[in-house]
Amino acid sequence: MQKKHQNNTVKLLANIVFASRWLQAPLYLGLIIAQGVYVYLFVNELVHLVQHAHTIGETEIMLVVLGLIDVVMIANLLLMVIVGGYETFVSRLYLENHADQPEWLEHVNAGTMKVKLSMALIGISSIHLLKTFIEAPNLTQQTMMWQVIIHMAFVLSAMAMAYTNRLMEPAKEH
Question: The pTM is what?
Answer without folding.
Answer: 0.73
